[in-house]
Design brief:
muscle protein, 2 domains, troponin C binding, 182 residues, troponin I binding, mainly alpha, flat, 0% strand
């Protein structure tokens, strides 16, 4: 069983002209070379981009690793400080308990001595307050009240004016719409 062969025909050569096959082959080779060079250039550009991205990624990873290490160091330092505070507090409590237990009946005298060390603190009632010139304060308060009153009246006047202007605009718009329909 033979398969039918495709009919091959020789390329037609224009009459009267010489065909330079070497020139055609050189042009084809130059074209292929240009395409190959473009592919090589695009490949190297893509590779360069990938390498830059890889370097940037490595830098980000290293930066994040350094940040994490710094955070862990800070966390450990804070934990150490907290533990030291707790230990000092426990030690102070223990000293206080020992002092209280050794005092026993002398505790009230201990409290009296502690009060003497601190000194007498004046309560709010006992403290005498120095008042500035009362007349000047009263004048300042009246001046502030007058200013506030004037501002409030201006605010009210402007809001009423705004309401009136809105009403005028609405009625004018309604008239324009009616005239436009006619």
């Amino acid at each position: 069983e033979e398969k039918p062969r495709p009919k091959l025909t020789a390329p037609k050569i224009p009459e009267g002209e010489k065909v330079d096959f070497d020139d055609i082959q050189k042009k084809r080779q130059n074209k292929d070379l240009m395409e190959l060079q473009a592919l090589i250039d695009s490949h190297f550009e893509a590779r360069k981009k990938e390498e830059e991205e890889l370097i940037a990624l490595k830098e980000r990873i290293e930066k994040r690793r350094a940040e994490r290490a710094e955070q862990q160091r800070i966390r450990a330092e804070k934990e150490r400080e907290r533990q030291n505070r707790l230990a000092r507090r426990a030690e102070d409590d223990l000293k206080k308990k020992k002092a209280l237990s050794s005092m026993g009946a002398n505790y009230s005298s201990y409290l009296a001595k502690a009060d003497q060390k601190r000194g007498k603190k004046q309560t709010a009632r006992e403290m005498k307050k120095k008042l500035p010139d009362l007349a000047a304060s009263r004048d300042k308060a009246k001046e502030l009240w007058d200013t506030l009153y004037q501002l409030e009246t201006d605010k009210y006047d402007f809001s009423e004016k705004l309401k009136r202007q809105k009403y005028d605009i609405m009625t004018a718009r309604a008239r324009v719409e009616m005239l436009a329909k006619l």
